[in-house]
Amino acid sequence: MRNLHLHYPWKSRLDLNGPYLSYLEQPVSVTGIGTIAGGTQGDTVSFSGIGTVTFNPSGILEPGQVPAIAVIDENDGVPTSITNTDWQNFRAKWPDRPFYVLHVSENAGTTGPWTGLSIPSGVQEGFTVIEVNRDTGNAAWQSDWYDQVGLSTLPRGSMVTLWIDSSGSMFESDVAASLQLFEKNCQEGDLTINRKDGEFPGMYGGEAYIYPFIDNLVMPDPVNRGILVYKWYEYFTSGVIALNDGGRISGSGTTTLTVSNLQSPGDDGRQFYLTVDYDPTSATGIGFSTGNAVNEPLTSNIVTLTTQPLIEITTQPPALTTTFQNVAATIAIEAGLSDVRFTDDTQYQWQLDGQNVSDGVIIKQSTSGTQVNTVVAGSTTKTLSLTSDNPDIAYGARCVVSSATASNSPVISDTSIYEVQDTANFNNINIESIPNGLTTATLANFDLDNGEITLNAATSSTSSDFFLHSLYAPDKDVNIEMDLYGGKGIDLTSADVGGDGGYSRIRFTMKKNEEYVIAGLTEAVRTPFVYHKASLIACVGGGGQAEGIPGSSGGNRGGDGGGIGVPGSSGMGPQGGTGAHTIIAGNLPSDGIFGSAFQAPVLYPGDTQAGTNFGGQTIRCPKGVYWAQQTIASLGPCADIAGSTKFRLSDGTEITNTADLTRGYKAGYNIIQTAGVGNNNGGNGGHGVVGGDGGGFSSGGGGGSGYTDGSVTVVSTQQGGSTGNAKVIIRVVT
Predict the structure, then answer these.
(1) Does a structural domain hold residue 642?
(2) Whole-angstrom Cα distance, residue 429 to residue 712?
């Protein structure tokens, strides 16, 4: 930083004989190894800078070489003898100092003659008079003193001395523009101006222009009693912060800044610099012996702290990964570099039992001595996939994560124990949930030993819930228990409420790899229908809807749905819909009747559409759409589909992610829409094997009835009892 000490005499007196600062040692950038945030194992690094002072830097003018510059217009009051004497005294003390007189013209904007100016007699070596303008502060009239005196040849860091007449015939304001230009040029040339203006007491009205340079405007040889003061700063593009000791920072006021326990990424890219000041100090009775440094504070170069990133494993593999034979298991890891400013070059290598593995097949003996083949995939990715063809096998799986950039490479993950269990020891069922309008099922596996599972009905007509669920036991026959809840009828008000749905608990054996389908868990049907392949094995009735007039007096409740073998009750009101009757177990016909609340777009031969407010009746086996169109003589509604097949939608689209099973359910036409429609603000009936009739003249609809084909054991059954949405609860029978 350059200094121009022009307007603060107290400061000038300190700086004029001050030293010149420089660095013996500049700080340099460093690289260290960081730890993750909150860690304690990061490196400790230091930045060092050492300053020095020079009272006569190489090339800078000695005190006896400092130019003397006097700015004056006339000195009529000073005898020539005095001028001669002053010159003799000046030259005797300073044999080599150049002396310049900038003679200011009498008239503004002009350069005049020497009129009124007394100069030493005879030819004087080193004495130069230069005519300059009286600019009166007008930049157009300014003179370039810096160039006229020839100061551009002086070494940077040098000093010049300046005196400006203020005796009355002129003042600083008369040369203000020229002075401003002079100060600017000196600053750019790194020259310090030692200045004293105006009158020295008793010296001929202040016009003795040589006298000030004899003993006052000089650069004396200093006595160095000063010290260097250091301060470290952190640099940001938006500004700087002075550092203080504390936390991980120490040495902030010394030659060496230390940053301990480096953090990644927080410390990477931090920038610092050092400043050094010269404090002249003072001694009792002596005062300041030297001035401030002419170029203080001296700023070092900016240095950078680079912290190499770390490999961070953000998600470890699970401690235990279990699967069954021929069922793929995945073991995943999430990792990356701690600093996103570095390109993520992490690489992955999975190990089994401590040995690197490649994609392919590895062999190991089970605990029973059986050879187990395990297919390995994703061995150099974040996710390892293992598929074993026999149970009773185990591996310890871990991942080695490496990076050419990270300082802690490689890092080994936690170990996950991979176990293949015998499915015969578990009560597993798989559920394929088929969504509306999509060609991919949602798959889920449940071990019923871990608790029961619940399948809930859709809650709105616009929801993306599933229109049916296909269930199967993949490993063995499983004895299960199902709770069937018919949906409560739709409420109109708090007083006009729908009837309860019917309830039944049944038990049966779910055969291995045979299809079981649950339909009716939709907003439109609101009661479950359970099929074993092509045959309806159980259903319960839904509750009837309340009356249809908002704000009525209330009380015209819908009828309750019936459980298996239980009729639905009639709706309340003067024309409440009749509750559905029952069908004897196993006596459900092959042809059915759509309830009047649903207008069938097509009717197959033998099927009919109920009229007025009447409920309908479902069919023993769904007829489907795609399968009904196939020219297979033996494929009737109740027949199994030949071979092991995937589930197909009503238009024949194969759901590719479903299992190959023994199937028989035929989607698209099953006549489970059996509710009767309400008339004259009456409520609709409930769906069931037989649907309840709709109510008339503000009366509730009747409840639907339940049914079984006799292939299940009915543990309990009742009319009503289901006060919420339709659902099915499944558990194992132990």
Answers:
(1) no
(2) 18
Residue 301 included in any domain: yes
Q: Where among 258, 291, 308 does a domain terminate?
A: 308
Q: Which CATH number do you get for residue 281?
A: 2.60.40.10
Q: CA 548 to CA 521: how far, in whole Å? A: 24
pTM tops 0.90: no
Q: Which residues lie below 8 Å from residue 100, measured CB to CB, with a gap of 6+?
A: 67, 68, 69, 70, 128, 129, 130, 149
What is the three-state SS of 700-724? CCCCCCEEECCCCEEEEEEEEEECC
| Bridge partner list, 714 | 506
Check residue 581 and report its DSSP letter: P
Residue 340 forms part of a structural domain: yes
Q: Which residue has the tokens 């009239």?
A: 141
User: Do residues 84 and 191 share a domain?
Assistant: yes
Name the nearest CA neighbour of 203 among 85, 334, 324, 108.
Answer: 85
Spatial CA neighbour of 39 closest among 406, 338, 402, 346 = 338
Q: Are 692 and 675 in contact (CB under 8 A)?
A: yes
Shared domain check, 199 and 72 = yes
Residues 327 and 421 in one domain: yes
User: Is residue 148 classed as helix, strand or coil in its secondary structure?
Assistant: helix
What does the pLDDT read at residue 159? 84
How many CA atoms, within 13 angstroms, populate the side-chain half-sphere of residue 342?
Answer: 23
User: Containing domain of residue 110, as a range?
Assistant: 63-215
Mean pLDDT of successive 10-residue stretches along the chain, which has 734 residues: 30 52 94 79 91 72 84 87 91 92 88 77 87 94 95 85 88 94 92 76 72 78 77 95 96 96 89 93 55 87 91 93 91 90 91 97 91 97 96 95 90 96 86 87 92 87 67 94 96 86 98 96 95 97 85 77 98 95 97 96 96 97 93 84 93 93 94 96 96 94 98 98 96 92
With beta carbons less than 8 A apart as the criterion, state whether 268 and 307 touch.
yes
Q: CA angle at residue 40 from 34 to 42, to 5 degrees? A: 20
Answer whether residue 165 is part of any domain: yes
Task: Tell me the CA distances in angstroms from 469 to 108, 145, 220, 525, 667, one per residue in order.
Answer: 106, 99, 102, 15, 11
- φ, ψ of residue 560 to 5 degrees: the values are -75, 145
For 425-455, b/e burial (b = at least 16 CB within 10 A) is: ebbbbbbbbbeeeeeebeeeebbbeeeebeb
**Residue finishing a domain among 249, 280, 308:** 308
The beta-strand segments (E) located in 511-590 are: 516-519, 529-532, 535-539
What's the domain count of the chain?
A: 3
Q: Are residues 209 and 69 in the same domain?
A: yes
Domain check: are 416 and 276 in the same one? Answer: no
* CA-based max dimension of the chain: 149
Q: What angle do CA 577, 582, 583 make, to 5 degrees?
A: 140
Contacts of 82 (CB under 8 A, 6+ apart): 204, 208
